[in-house]
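Sanity check. The docking grid for flavin-adenine dinucleotide depends on where the pocket ends up, so I'm generating a full predicted complex first rather than guessing from homology. Inputs follow.
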Amino acid sequence: MKHKVVIVGGGAGGLELATRLGKTLGRRKQAEITLVDANLTHIWKPLLHEVAAGSLDPSIDELNYFAQAKWNHFSFQHGRMVDLDRDRKNVMFKSSNAEVREIQYDTLVMAVGSQCNDFGTIGVQEFCHFLDSRVQAEKLHKLFLSRYMRAHATDKSTPLRISIVGAGATGVELCAELQHAIRIIEGYGLRQASPSTLKITLVEAGPRVLPVLNQDVSETVHSGLTDLGIDVRVSTAVKEVTAEGVRLADGSIVSADLTIWAAGIKAPSFLKELAGLETNRINQFLVRRTLQTTLDESIFAIGDCASCPLSDEGCGFVPPRAQAAHQQAEMLSRSLSRLIAGRSPLKFNYEDRGTLVSMASFNAVGTLTGLLGFRKVTEGLFARTLYMSLYRLHQASLYGAPRMLLKVFAELLQRRTRPRLKLH
Ligand SMILES: Cc1cc2nc3c(=O)[nH]c(=O)nc-3n(C[C@H](O)[C@H](O)[C@H](O)COP(=O)(O)OP(=O)(O)OC[C@H]3O[C@@H](n4cnc5c(N)ncnc54)[C@H](O)[C@@H]3O)c2cc1C
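Predicted complex below; grid placement will be based on this.
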């Protein structure tokens, strides 16, 4: 009997892992690799702010799981995981016709990612929009366009008001991308250029934007956002979200036509103590440095849904980032090959290669660590090129370098025949 590896979640970590294992163990028929995902196609999550603004058309950039499975010697099951039976080693998932099906595993890898954390704030689920999935990003794009058109058609002096809560990378990148989108929209003659056509307020409870990055990056980004006309409010806690906008802790209201919640993350709630496994207060599985869950060595977790210690001494945890999911997928593909061959698993060492934040085509800012042997703030064309190369690296890991280059070339050709922004 072939060893059965089931990976749940085909995102930044899970899809790369399935592809790597398919190309090695699957191709050599040493194991059966199955990927389960709730969607039929994959879009790299760090691109979702571009989908929301319309600068990226997901129907062009998406990757089809069935095709990827066929090309890389693994199989794909479409469905949403709902439960786990550890005694029978079965994963239960709901297929598209709502039927609950089961799939058996010898090794299970959980890679279901994360979603926004509303921290129990009143009104968030009812009145806010989110950027956790392609569906949400596309919905936001349609709303953004239609509200903008409506504001334009009804009263030229009233700007479209957008509040974004949370000045982490998602909130900051979304602000810049929306501001960039408006400039392109105006270029198509939809509205006369005027600084008052869009009013974005970025609200952050902490004392500075990008609180997890260093002070210099925060300051550069803060002034960049202000130059773009964004009203940045730090040390400003949100008490409640209503249909009118965001009510702050001091009782004042930031009025908004659209409120987007981008503050903090948590793993999906169905993981909370799933089948008796240990989880933390934001539903992440507790894993050892081998990425095995603390109570079950045949179950692994990677990416945003895993809480993995940075070292054996226990000083901090691997951050929820695409680069961490990628590094874990790469390491786990080697480790699982060893385990299946009867050898001991490897330990994960996170290498922080720095963080870059995109400010649309205006700029990119961040720190580089390790690369070229220095750790400093970088911005401008160099940072922007590096930022864009992160996605190309993700594509290369899925398609191989030659096909990634072909895709880049195809995109360059397509740019000549399509509008720069998705306008519908
Ligand atoms: C707008 C935005 C910008 C970002 N920018 C950056 C950045 O610049 N740099 C960076 O390092 N990180 C960035 N991130 C964070 C990064 O996207 C995540 O850390 C990364 O995607 C996590 O990878 P993952 O594999 O854990 O999960 P994901 O990539 O989120 O994939 C999870 C997968 O699991 C599937 N799934 C979920 N639940 C189920 C279920 N019950 N059953 C079956 N399938 C399921 C989903 O459909 C999805 O395909 C950004 C995030 C956002 C939202």
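Relevant for the grid: The two ends are 51 Å apart (CA to CA).
Also worth noting: The pocket of flavin-adenine dinucleotide is lined by residues 8-14, 36-39, 45-46, 48-49, 80-81, 111-113, 131, 169-170, 173, 268, 303-305, 320-323, 325 (CB under 6 Å).
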